[in-house]
Amino acid sequence: xxxxxxxxxxxxxxxxxxxxxxxxxxxxxxxxxxxxxxxxxxxxxxxxxxxxxxxxxxxxxxxxxxxxxxxxxxxxxxxxxxxxxxxxxxxxxxxxxxxxxxxxxxxxxxxxxxxxxxxxxxxxx
Length: 125
Fold this sequence. Notes:
Structural class: mainly beta
Organism: Cymbomonas tetramitiformis
Protein name: F5/8 type C domain-containing protein
InterPro entries: FA58C (IPR000421), Galactose-bd-like_sf (IPR008979)
Pfam families: F5_F8_type_C
Domain F5/8 type C: 1-125
CATH topology: Jelly Rolls
Mean pLDDT: 86
């Protein structure tokens, strides 16, 4: 959240399944989708690709930061295919990836759990 189209990115401590990126929305909101990007960095010439992105992930969410639910029972969401394109996954209350009017889930906290990645676990969301 708040990192899309910036030079900064979240990077996992280790390139291993079990790492996660947590976002705090500040209060409980209706969450209808997740948008992700790979990692860019500002090199000597400004914006240069780092060739790092998450290619698939699971999502978990919570209203209080204590009790967590796995989205879609652990559904695998598609991630990015390059450093800069945005990937949107629409969320539904039943965990289906099919868009439905006024659907979504209630959450304050969201965790992205990378499953596969290109080069290193890095992302913007």
